[in-house]
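The passage that follows is intended for readers who have already worked through the single-chain material. We present the inputs for a multi-component assembly, then the predicted structure in tokenized form, and finally a short commentary. You are encouraged to pause after the input and sketch how you expect the pieces to fit together before reading on.
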Amino acid sequence: MDFRFTDEQKMTAEAVEGLLADLCQASDLRRLMESGDARDEKRWTALVEMGLQGALVAEEEGGLGLKPADFVLVAEACGRAGLPEPLVDNAGVAIPLLADIVRATGAGADLLEQALAGEITVAAAHPVNAFIADADTAGAIIAIWNDELFVVTPDAVELVRQQSSDPFRRLFTLAARPSSAVVSLPLSEAQAYLDAALDRGALFSAAQLAGIAQRAVDLGVAYSKERMQFGKPIGSYQAVKHLLATAQVKIEFVRPVIYAAAAATPDRNVFSRSRISHAKIMASEAADLACRTSVQVHGAMGYSWEVDVHFFLKRALALASWWGDARFHRARVATRVFGHPLGADQTFPKG
Amino acid sequence: MDLTYSAEENAFRMEVRAWLEANVPSAPLPSFDASREGFEAHREWERKLSEGNWGMVTWPKEYGGRALDLIQWLIFEEEYWRAGAPLRVNQNGIFLLGPTLMEFGTPEQKARFLTAMASGEEIWAQAWSEPQAGSDLAAVRSTARREGDEYVLNGHKIWSSRAVFADWAFGLFRSDPGSERHKGLSLIFFPLNAPGVRVQAIPQIDGETGFAEIFLEDVRVPAFNRLGDEGQGWHICMATAGFERGLMLRSPARFQMAAKRLVELYRKHEAECDPAIRDAVLQAHMDAEAYALSIYSTASRLIAGGKIGAEASTNKIFWSEMDIAMHRTALAILGARAELVRAAPAAGEDARWLEGYFFSLAGPIYAGSNEIQKNIIAERMLGLPRG
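Having made your guess, compare it with the prediction:
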């Protein structure tokens, strides 16, 4: 029993953090927002060059063969930076889903190869999500129409943009059934892969939400050290301290759940699903509280476009229901709680 | 990261389980805060634990421990709570003073006090707070005047848990008469039956006498009873507070068992429950798990040589709020019967929730109020300026 991340796991995350510290400052976010571009090509190229797109794909299929626990800190770092580009959904969810489909059907291998090489991204629909994210820039789209799942190239779909309050979320619905497909199969035959994708999606959303929550607190802390009222920094007053401390406590008690969920994700059983869902529910709550707290601590500035908090508030709002909302995930926790042994010796139950 | 138990850890769990199954009293012991009889029954249990070397499994063998690591301590606690074993009457000693003695005590002091502590032969109370020194602990006025090889203690301590029936207390005293605030304080042990000590029980919200006032009038103790250097008392107290709020005081297993009982209570009354109760029950389970996972994480870090920091404060806030929430949920399930005490024929064992609820209300107050903990988090973890 050892809860610590390995040096390798930490180094991967630190490499991403370092890159984001260079290329994903709030000023970078604003520049991208004003340009209206889908992505910052310099930043995206640098991320692709790290080679993480194949992180969760098996080595024999051309990936790195890493586990969710190796990627969870990367997702957290992306949340903390407010990364606009779809590294987490692409590498953490959609590409491994494509790899599953390719393995099952024997079709689409060339798209997977391009995705692993970083030449294209993969966007994935999922029954739990109302929209497909980043479909307009994807080279392969896993689409769903009624009871069918398709792997398509962009020319086969007509996308309808669904504008999000988050300036970096690019959400789409399909206007019609795809006109052609590289792969098509009944949804029921893809269920196992979709379930696995959901677990990864929920886990990495939780990790991003923890990162967002921490960033929101960090912004609030920085501001409350500088902002003077009644002759003192507002952060010296208990009313402000307690708001920020309360948000930080929430973050401290969701991180270990996320990390344990990451370690359990490959188990694919009722316990791992419950732990992932627990992480998702509580990370959403932590991010919600932290972002609202940060707005409050910033005072009128917190309600302004000028202060960066709103980027994180909006992302937190979006991710709270992305890959399953609280109701969905609570039902998965309930399956574990009401159907399986509980108690002090059940912290790490075996499947 | 490896979140599986080793073969050795699993074997240890089975060893603990077997011993507890053979030894835990079949009927619950009477409360140690309500009567001398209950207190002594718990002392007897401590003696039994220590005969099996289960008194404090993390302590060195020479003091009655087993020299095990914190993961094994967690496993022991899980099994202990799973077995429904009695509450630890000597928790102030074994969980708070013990680790502090281990860090700051001389070899002679360790030999004198630790073994007797682990065996329940000497049961400890804490004597820190004073009427004018609660959250502002540095305002203590009780004095320790040095006379030769002795200290002469005078003053008035309050809110001392277990002091009504305990044998010893560890107190914070001003040993430098001209000193102020955090300076000039010393941590000194005194027997509660020493001449000049008067203990006055304070009835609690639940009617029991879990805490007391201690009046000290020219109480003479040997200088040997001072832990650490003279004037180092504040520093040592803060280290003790770290243990208290940190890991030992409230092990996760306690709340996991409470969450399990809450789920059982809910299942029994599901049909009559407001739908919101179901979410609260699930929340109780999630919170107990989150606390356990967090403690496992901290334990791993400490085993690898880390130090406990502000998580001592985040833990304390989390478990104390969780404890209240769980009990409030149970009372909501019990509905009209929530107010009944054990004596009521319609209450029975369910009255345990009301008793637990009253006790949970003390959680955000003792061991440093949650408001003080939030200040600590804000200042030491987040780096906000002192007020």
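Commentary: Chain A touches chain B through 52 residues (CB under 8 Å). Chain A is about 55% helix and 10% strand. How closely did your sketch match?
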